[in-house]
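Input set for joint prediction.
Command: fold jointly, output tokens.
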Amino acid sequence: MKILLPAPVLMALDQLERGGHEAFVVGGCVRDSLLLKTPDDWDICTSAMPDEIKACFSMCRTIDTGIKYGTVMVIIDRMELQITTYRLDSAYSDYRRPDQVFFTPSLQEDCRRRDFTINAMAYNPKGGLMDFFGGLDDLNNKRIRCVGDANERFAEDALRILRALRFSSILRYRVEENTAFAIGNNKQLLKRISVERIACEVNKLLMGDNVERVLTEFAEVFGVLLPEVSFCTLRKDVSGADVWKHTALSISKAPLDLPVRLALLFHEIESDPPHSALAARRTLKQFKYDNDTLQKTVSLVENQSIYIENSNASILRQFKRFGSDIFINLLELREACLKGRQIDREQLNLVIACRKKAMEILSGDYCWSVSQLHIDGNDLIEAGLKEGVKIGECLDLLTDHVIQGYVKNKKEDLIRYVMNILDMDSQTSHIGH
Ligand code: ATP
Ligand code: MG
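tokens >
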């Protein structure tokens, strides 16, 4: 078994060994390498104590932020490496992080504290793969299995429940039987985990290939995070489909876009879109999502049922109303939703055709917002717009008329056109009064 390590990683291992210490790459990077994926980062574990790590890298820049837990960040050739002393984790009183860290001289002990067998392997070029808990076998059999007693491991740290589901979703792995059973036993402990950490795992989980299965198989876990889910599993929607199954299938059909997938998660969580949108807002606030994700998601849930027509003018009107990106997200949501229902082929074709047209419009020379008009407020004033007429409303109206094709988006045409309207208007109604 050979893993190709980047030069800075090899240098770090070598430097620690020259100092008389053991050193291995460990965890996610070993797992990803064995899966022939490029790891995001390379974590190193070592028998060296934190001050010894620093002594080995006196010629490099080191950062001490994690030093309390035994981690020193070393920067070699601009690569940031987390180097951590072998450690055990003691009792977890707040269900979040270890109270205290105990260092150990044993690599095996360091691997034992890790969550799943596939994440508990270490490697270095001399020693080869160090696999104390059958990680390679589980990798080959596509299994998520706890290191040690699953019940104890989830009770120590309930975030591992969501990590298990996240890996199952992303890697398309089954959760091994005992591990799955222990997840069911300990799911209530998720209530003690910080909302930010939960959201981070859920976001990753929603993007996985196996998301449909994970959501349906572990619906009870999601019911702890979001009580409405438990009702969804019992409800049927207007088409007679099981709401939660439909939700899970729809998400799996959507593009890898977080607001779209979150919106699908909430789209039928209540009996109608306005109530579902309220539930989405409340939940995303509770889980401290950033404002941009929250606004987009809520808007998608709220407007999920807008009228869709396959014409340039209609699409331009929707672009103006929602913004092009949100409207395209709405089409993506609708498409995923219809694919998750598998009955209305005609509607689905319409939505797909609309999305195609919307993309063409987006890359073409079209106008759907005031900022794209080829005149602005100053042009209107110069043209002698009468006092009292509201410039903003005038530009907005012009945009509508460009969309409808009543006037071309050309400066002279627009000015002539607006003056004509205002002349006529002064005898009838009153723009801006
Ligand atoms: P990725 O980085 O792809 O999200 P990862 O497995 O590398 O996945 P990290 O959070 O980077 O996850 O953690 C690195 C390693 O630390 C893991 O592979 C695992 O060995 C260990 N680990 C992380 N979180 C926990 C936890 N909650 N309980 C036990 N071990 C953990
Ligand atoms: Mg990692």
